[in-house]
Specification:
By secondary structure, the chain is mainly alpha-helical. The protein contains 15 helices and 2 strands. Strands 1-2 form a two-stranded antiparallel sheet. The longest helix is centred in the first third of the chain and has 32 residues. 46% of the residues are buried.
């Protein structure tokens, strides 16, 4: 898997991602402490509002940026977003009122919503071979999982010698180093394509591609399944461990680590599996594994007893396995479903739509856990996960060909996709299953 790090450009981008993730993790810890410092017992309300603002920024800003990202110089744009994030992080220690957190969080997360899909859409152009790109996706998944384990531990160690406000300095340093690493390499620029129509139409161009592509409609359903399962882990672990089981706070990170370990295990093993097998069976299996983990949680929560703690850890580990198996290959589907010029818009659509799923499942998991208890919450989220699997199985055809034979008349709307010899008259040709196959004037190939 580490062979892809031999590519200097990708190596610098990966290091930029890892360092920025660690900085973001430190900011998450510091923000919680800042909220408690400002609001005391109402800190949960402040953090809940900040999380909602984050999701609104992700859902609303990403499609707008994706519509125009292919017209902007990638390196300058990514560096600018890192500098904006560094500036916001540098401002947070000077906040004196809880309300001041909200506009800063919106600005920070808007910059992240602009940076992340553009960054993700750059990697397929840096690593055009699918084998290399698959390994890059697994490394990215590992980076996220390791950050979830390492950042809290690093923050805890730093807090023994410095005040929590200084953790924001670590965030600033992370974003500045990320910007420096991006500056240090030359990035391939996608070919800008002039698009007619209103700003609204251009903004939702990526969404249109996404929702017209059968495999991506299946991916959206799998995003819903992953959001339902992971929301149970992220939202209710602390409640389950400390309130229901009456265990100490130090056991909460152990439970979260079980989920992370399952995810990392799959991220290590998945590339070789995908070298010889298609994405669809792996992703549907992963989502089914998440559903099984949640159904096991129904039994665990209902029975209790001394076996409850180890079986909860096993359930979280199982959900982590399914989560990584479901989401790690998603970049391969996005890469396969759009031309280079359209990738920023399509990755932005994935970013926005997947976070829209979490915007629904986060509060759902929290409200059900508080009102109905753990066993019914497990059951409802398991049902939602199964629903996602069923929709994906139906929407995403098993015969998911990358290359389709078809014919169509010459049309200026797809001149950019044709060779010189194809620009006149009717013609037949073979090309990847991308936006070309989704032109609204064509017959439905699917």
């Amino acid at each position: 898997m580490l062979d892809v790090l031999a590519d200097r450009t990708y190596r610098h981008l990966f290091l930029a991602q890892v360092i920025a993730l660690v900085g973001t993790g430190l900011a998450t810890v510091a923000l919680g402490l800042l909220a408690y410092d400002l609001a005391g017992a109402n800190a949960g309300t402040v953090l809940g509002t900040a999380l909602a603002i984050k999701m609104v920024a992700y859902v609303g800003v990403a499609p707008v940026v994706g519509a125009f990202a292919n017209r902007l110089p990638r390196r300058a744009f990514l560096v600018s977003m890192d500098l904006v994030r560094a500036g916001v992080a540098a401002s947070l220690p000077f906040v004196t009122e809880a309300w001041q957190i909200y506009p800063l969080i919106f600005l920070l997360q808007s910059a992240s919503a602009a940076f992340t899909p553009t960054f993700q859409a750059t990697i397929p152009d840096v690593l055009p071979a699918e084998k290399d790109y698959t390994r890059a996706l697994s490394l990215s998944r590992l980076a996220y999982d390791l950050e979830s384990l390492a950042s809290p531990a690093l923050a805890a160690a730093l807090l023994t010698i410095i005040g929590f406000h200084w953790l924001f300095a670590g965030t600033v340093i992370g974003f500045l180093v990320s910007a420096a690493l991006v500056v240090s390499v030359r990035l391939p620029q996608s070919r800008a394509v002039e698009r007619s129509g209103s700003i609204y139409a251009r903004t939702f161009h990526g969404m249109s591609i996404y929702l017209r592509t059968p495999r991506l409609r299946g991916l959206l359903a799998l995003n819903l399944a992953a959001a339902a399962a992971s929301s149970m882990v992220i939202v209710n672990t602390v409640v389950y461990v400390q309130s229901k089981m009456q265990r100490p706070a130090t056991d909460v990170p152990i439970a979260l680590a079980a989920f992370g370990c399952g995810s990392m295990l799959v991220a290590l093993l998945l590339p070789k599996y995908l070298d010889k097998r298609p994405d669809r069976p792996a992703m549907l299996t992963g989502a089914s594994v998440m559903a099984l983990g949640l159904l096991a949680g129904v039994a665990i929560a209902g029975v209790g007893g001394p076996a409850e703690w180890p079986t909860l850890l096993a359930a979280w580990f199982t959900i982590g396995i399914g989560y990584s198996m479901t989401l790690t290959p998603s970049g391969r589907l996005l890469r396969r479903s759009a031309s280079s010029a359209d990738r920023p818009a399509v990755f932005a659509a994935q970013f926005s739509l997947s976070h829209a799923c979490w915007l629904v499942t986060y509060p759902l998991a929290g409200q059900l856990g508080a009102r109905l208890g753990m066993a019914p919450t497990f059951a409802v989220l398991a049902a939602l996960t199964v629903l996602g699997v069923g929709i994906a199985w139906r929407m995403w055809p098993a015969a998911d060909h990358n290359i389709l034979d078809h014919s169509h008349p010459a049309d200026a709307a797809f001149e950019d996709h044709l060779s010189e010899g194809e620009r006149t008259g009717s013609h037949s040709h073979r090309h990847p299953f991308t936006i070309d196959d989704l032109h609204p004037r064509w017959p439905d190939h699917h």
